[in-house]
Amino acid sequence: MRTEETKKENLVAQAYEMKKEGWRLVCITGTDLSTDSEQKMEVLYHFARENEVRHLRVETDGTENYPSILSAYANALFLENELKEMLGIPVDGIKGELLLRLEDEVKAPLKRLRGVSYETREIKVEKNAEVAPQ
Amino acid sequence: MSCPMSICASAALPAILLLLSPLFGGLLAGVDRKLTARMQNRKGPPLTQPFWDIFKLLGKQSMVSNPAQILFAIGYLGFMILALGVFFWGGDLLAIVFLTTFASVCLVLGAFSVRSPYAYIGGQRELLQLASFEPVLIAAVAAIYLKTNTFLVSGIHGGLMPYLIPSLLALWMVLPIKMRKSPFDIATAHQEVVKGPFTEYSGAYYAVILVGEWLELLLVLLIITLFVANPWLKVLIFVGSLVGELLLDNACARLNWKWLLRYSWAIALPMAVIGIMVSSDVFRALINALSAYIYIGG
Amino acid sequence: MKTVIPFGPQHPVLPEPFHVKLHMEGETIEGLDLQVGYCHRGLERIFQTDYKKVTFLIERICGICSFLHTLGYVRAVEEIMELTVPRRALIIRTIMAELERIHSHLLIIGLYGDALGYENYFMQSWRDRELVMELLEYISGNRVNYAMNQVGGVRRDLDEDRVKAAHKAIDELEKRTGDISKVLLNDVSIKLRTQGIAKLSKEDAIALGTVGPVARASGVAYDVRNTGYLIYPELNFKPIWETAGDNYARMQVRIRELFESYRMVREALKLLETEGSGEIMLAIKPNQRPNGQAFVRTEAPRGECFHYVKANGTPDLERVRVRTPTYANIYALTKMLPGADLADLPVAVVTIDPCLSCTDR
């Protein structure tokens, strides 16, 4: 599988171009590649046109603003929502309330913490806990 | 033939019939379910299943949104019992029609009294069904009156055929609406509005509504039997209407409310009006004049 | 009068939970908000484990198209590991995939009858479906979740008896489908309820990225089986499509696909008979691990299913991504339904064949 590197600044323009050429957005895949030393995420955009496929690869650190291609591809709505929910990537204009029903408890289940463990469950400190002696 | 007549005149038989009517209505519902199942090549529940349903419902917790619901549920059943009573005592057909209408209105009001959107839409659809069914029924009753000069059930002793065939056809056409069967079961379309006006009833109050439904089915089929005089024909038309209706139910998809109105007002109602015309004296006079004219002219 | 009606997550017509908030004007739908996620099980996180275990885990995404999920996944892993799967395994996979399509289509055709209030039709269609489910049980031992695929081949062979049974079942099914298709395509009451309703234009179908029968009913002649995986090129597969884009056309596509599937299963069974027995499974060394990434598209009964696998040479996979057909199709409801009646909503929902367990994973 061959991927084409691209910058996230060029992403939206490239998406428009691909739409004009008749490419269909198949899926967006986000993967957390963070290690102990650096935080790194890759986002793959899979496009298809009849029997051909193309994959755009964008790297991001997962914290700064990330462009949305919703204006070019309407079906990116669910996919980008999932990107935000599962990996915590702050996609522009996306609320991220699609799949996870327990927004308060579970945050970004696919996001890595220091490359090893996963931030799967962030249990809120209850009020009573503050009163408890240290 | 004088013996049965004398019993009819007494009050005992109608009272017994009325007491047995829930039993008979329940069996009718059981037959309905069994036949439907056999038509769909299923085994189906036992004939007594509707009664078990009622017993089970009576044992369940009865939740209501507001007390008005209880009133309307009991009102529905009460008006149905009254209507059936009037029928068995040989009373006024017009009164029966209005009592069943009151019963249906109770159902609609019960649906409107809660804040459930499904009950609300079901209530609206029930009103539409009422508006489709009642005019045809009233026209049929009017036709019977024109033919027999009485609204009393006890005053009808056959002789309606063949003049009232159009009225009978019209009644058959709108029967699915009253029986809540395809293609016109829109008020209780469970894929769309769950259970329509019944959605918010549970437990004993739903049982009350169910018994009311059985009686309604029984009453409509009994009104249809008025059209023929022979007892065997009465049984035949009773069973035939039920089976024919089930056949239609199993060979049809559900239509929507637009089709309901188009069908009942553009086809069934004109047919009922033709029924009135055919049975009226004016029409007969016209036919006589026409035949006389042809005879003389010929 | 304007009302808001909550449709789902629990509703008689929905086999699986999702929520539609309907903005109504009387009985007419003005707009709707979709909410999925009631079946979310975090499977994509659980998939970050041993690649051999994932084959059985990924089967649990969905009960109806479970074979397609394993098929997509093992194809992706085989592509990464550069394995050449034995030919007999490919033929068996094709047969299973098509049998599963038959089973899924008969299921949704039945539900379609139910959504239309046509109970008799529903019963008949599901009775026919029993035939193909019994056949699948005979072949694999299970009615759903067949556990047939494994990286490198399939786990069970089709012997002579099973091929014979399959031929018999397909003949019977074709006859019965002929009967039910006559009703589905010609019944007046069904036509009144479905023709010209909940239309999806070709432009919208492309713009919203719809796949499978939903897209094909709107005139997009796109079928992944055309890309030539498994042995579809040998079976002369032709995509089936309609142009009307309404509820009727979507079911018409499925009915016609059934007959195409029967034909292909028959030809594949003949291939099995003529080519004789052979290997069905590649031996994989215990220390052989996938390293790399692959992107695979498979035509599930509901449309194009997408699997992406990224492995890094360790036993655990780095990422498995699944984009199911309903995920792509369900959003099209917001374009189809405005202007339609409330009564048309269950039918339209059924015609996109929603599988929410797939969508939510």
How would you sum up the major sheet of chain B?
Answer: none
Counting helices, strands and paired strands, the structural category of chain A is alpha+beta
What is the overall silhouette of chain B?
Answer: globular
Element order of chain B: H for helix, E for strand:
HHHHHHHHHHHH
Q: Give the strand tally of chain B.
A: 0
Span between termini of chain B: 46 Å
Indicate the radius of gyration of chain A in whole angstroms: 17 Å
Helicity range of chain A: 10-25%
- How much β-strand is present in the residues of chain A? 25-35%
Oligomer: heterotrimer
What radius of gyration of chain B results from the CA coordinates?
A: 20 Å
Strand order of the largest sheet of chain A: 1-4-3-2
Number of domains of chain B: 1
Kindly state the number of beta strands of chain A: 6
What is the residue-mean pLDDT of chain B, rounded to a whole number?
82
What would the keywords be for this entry?
heterotrimer; B: mainly alpha; 12 helices; globular; disordered N terminus; C: 361 residues; alpha+beta; 3-stranded antiparallel β-sheet; 14 helices
Give a description of the structure.
The complex is a heterotrimer of chains A (134), B (298) and C (361). Chain A is an alpha+beta fold. Chain A has helices at 11-20, 76-87, 127-131, and strands spanning 4-6, 24-32, 41-49, 52-60, 112-113, 117-118. Chain A has one domain (4-131): Beta Polymerase, domain 2. Chain A is 20% helix and 25% strand. The longest helix of chain A has 12 residues, at 76-87. By secondary structure, chain B is an all-alpha fold. The model of chain B is unreliable at 1-8 (pLDDT under 50). Chain C is of the alpha+beta class and 361 residues long. The two termini of chain C are 38 Å apart. Chain C has 14 helices and eight strands. Chains A and C meet through strand 2, strand 3 and helix 2 of A and strand 6, strand 7 and strand 8 of C.
